[in-house]
Amino acid sequence: MPMGTKKTRIGIYPGSFDPLTNGHLDIIIRASRLFDSLIVGVLRNDAKKTLFSMEERVALINKCTKDIPNVKVEMFEGLLVDFVKKKNADTIVRGLRAVSDYEYELQMAMMNKHISPEVETIFLMTDINNSFLSSSMVKDVAVHGGNIQGLVPDAVVDDIYKKVKND
Ligand code: PNS
Q1: Is the shortest distance between the CB of 15 and ligand 1 below 6 Å?
Q2: Fewer Cβ atoms within 10 A, N terminus or C terminus of the chain?
């Protein structure tokens, strides 16, 4: 790269997002301040049953991030590190809630480092208020008619209730 040329920093925040929670949104907002551009990568995994289809998951995130100009939402399939390279990014962002997340996240970061040493993984600590939140618990609460307000962005509350009712 010529001297004086600033490299555009692109970060990738990958996940299943089935559905997006306030924990995810908090990480998106904070990570968007660390990069010129942040791509939320939504995993297409046909082997895993999800409540929301890939297109629906992408649409929900788009709805909640439309006011953050440097955030884009894209689906990916296959290896995450291949998606990172395809997008000219070099950093994966993951949120860490509790010690229980650490083992899985460490394993994943090390595997990604093993297959692509040039790709870094950085972790943002989840906001304490969201530390108990997970997509699967939100779904469980919604399925049983509990209150999910405050757990997910207001814009997606009704979509989730509608979906669990028709599932
Ligand atoms: O929200 P999740 O389900 O915890 O996200 C997991 C995700 C999508 C980041 C992870 O499953 C992934 O990267 N899958 C793509 C396949 C891959 O790259 N596997 C090798 C590294 S573990």
Answers
A1: yes
A2: N
Banded pLDDT at 103 (limits 50, 70, 90) = very high
Counting atoms of ligand 1 from 1, which one is nearest the CA of 92?
9
- CB-ligand 1 contact for 43 (6 Å cutoff): yes
Nearest protein CA to atom 7 of ligand 1, as residue: 15
* pLDDT tens string 44-86: 988 889 999 999 999 999 999 999 999 999 999 999 999 999 9
How far does residue 139's CA lie from ligand 1's centre (Å)?
20
pTM above 0.90, yes or no: yes
**Cα dihedral sign, 130-155-149-20:** negative
What average pLDDT does range 119-148 have in this prediction?
A: 96
The residue whose CA is least distant from atom 1 of ligand 1 is 15
Could you tell me where the beta strands, DSSP code E, fall in 47-157? 71-76, 91-96, 120-125
Q: What is the distance, to the nearest Å, from the Cα of residue 148 to the centroid of all Cα atoms in its chain?
A: 19
Active site residues: 24, 48, 97, 135
Domains assigned to the chain: 10-166 (3.40.50.620)
